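Table S2 (continued). Query chain:
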Amino acid sequence: MKNFLILTATIGALGAAAPSFGTDLAGQPVKVKAAPLPVAAPIIDWSGYYIGVNGGWGTSRNCWDFNGVSPEGCHNSTGGTIGGQIGYRWHIFNMVYGIEGQGNWADFSGSNVSTAFPANTIGTTTDAFGLLTGHIGYAFNAVLLYGKGGAAVTSNNYLINSVASRTELANSNDVRWGGVLGAGAEVSLTPNWSAGVEYNHLFMQRSNISFPGFLGTDRAHQDIDLITARLNYKFGSPFAK
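Corresponding output:
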């Protein structure tokens, strides 16, 4: 009987203590692991020296006037181009300023039958050009939009052929200076590499072309449109700060 009373008292004591122990556990703070802080996107810095390659397509619009008076007609000289560029940029807040030199090999060729001398065809081939330009742009972090302008130079070969025999009757060469306006977009790919596309319009000064063995001269007018893809490598510190 004594053992039964002791067991009953023990069970009653445990029953009374259980709610109090549960309350103590419920009051303990729950440790929750803090969420990791978000990683900030790198800030792109376009400043520094760069060098690169470019390639694409171009068309040259050429119009000839015999002795500057009699029109001989116009033709488009089209073809491919490949070359390189080197430059420097300054990144100030969101504005990007730069200067660049570019040199390209080209193969723009075309011809037409002369309206003043129907027995002959006249043709123009542009085999090289160069650009020296200043740039101004706006950086949307990894994307750079810019405009450019400056000086342009082209190397040209002028041909007169016979319509009947298709033989060359005369040729002449010149180097012509003019101006360029353009625009482009560039995207950073890795800390030092970027790629983009660019459009340029070259407006060249008129020049007088003389041909050995032919009397008189031809006054030639030239405009060129270029679309190129570009790949640049930036030296020094990487783009990401």
